[in-house]
Amino acid sequence: MILVPAAVPRTAPAFQRLIDPKQRPAVRAGLTVEALPPGVRIEQLPYESVESVTVVLSGRLFAAGRILCPGEALHHRPGTSCRISAVRGAPTTVLTVRPTPRADIPAQRSDSRSARSWRQVDVGTARIDPGGTCGPYRDRAADAFLLVLAGAAVFLGDLGEESLLPGDLVYVRAGEQYGLRVGRRGPVTVVLGRVGAPGAVPGPEWGDRPTCSGQAGPQG
Q1: What does the alpha-carbon distance between residue 146 and residue 55 come to, in Å, rounded to a whole number?
Q2: Which of 121, 139, 167, 215 has the most CB atoms lying inside 10 A of its own CB?
Q3: Contact between residue 135 and residue 218 where contact means Cβ atoms under 8 Å apart
């Protein structure tokens, strides 16, 4: 288990590597978080061998012809770039998930016919009611991560329990237990993600353009 407390920047501009594959070669993905000043535009560069996913954590983001709100994610096919803009009014914070390329897995190009041949990342946003739980799960085919957007919860892992506050991130390797328990004081909103081998993560058939995923309930 890797715990990154206070992972979400409070001011903009700011950039932070939360999970760095160069420092932790065993992880399946790199995670970065960036706070964008209102109105700023950036170009996300393409990666030929892997997809990338942009998750809005706070503020609003304009991308792929629509406005994304906190908890929504944008998937980018391998080899494609995307221009994103922070909507004016307040800073926008985004989480970027990029699987680590592996030499034993053939590169997946953007012209692949089947989305399942290249998809490695599954991201959803869950709202857990007071007194509720999410998991615990043990996924042997994929790494997983949880990032608390609102509320307080208790992480349920192999090493015991860990209190989580808004902005805290937990990353677990494949085979490790993960889950959340929520107290009675209020609901918790959390981003849940899984990163597996290409084609191993289930999901809808994404089109050629990046597709925004809606909010999802807790999944195993």
Answers
A1: 12
A2: 121
A3: yes
Quick one: tokens of 43?
A: 């170009």
Backbone region of residue 203 per phi and psi (left: phi > 0; alpha: psi in -120 to 50; beta: other values): left
Closest CA to 126 of 219, 62, 31, 16: 219
Mean pLDDT by 10 residues, the chain (220 residues): 93 94 94 94 76 92 90 86 87 93 51 59 92 91 94 94 96 95 91 83 39 37
- Find out whether 55 and 191 touch, Cβ atoms under 8 Å: yes
Q: Report whether 39 contacts 129 (CB < 8 A).
A: no
C-alpha distances out from residue 122 to 4, 10, 204, 210, Å: 20, 26, 10, 14
3-state secondary structure the chain: CEEECCCCCCCCCEEEEEECCCCCCCCCEEEEEEEECCCCEEEECCCCCCCEEEEEEECCEEECCEEECCCCEEEECCCCCEEEEECCCCCEEEEEEEECCCCCCCCCCCCCCCHHHCCCEEEEEEEECCCCEEEEEECCCEEEEEEEEECCEEEEECCEEEEECCCCEEEECCCCEEEEEECCCCCEEEEEEEEECCCCCCCCCCCCCCCEECCCCCCC
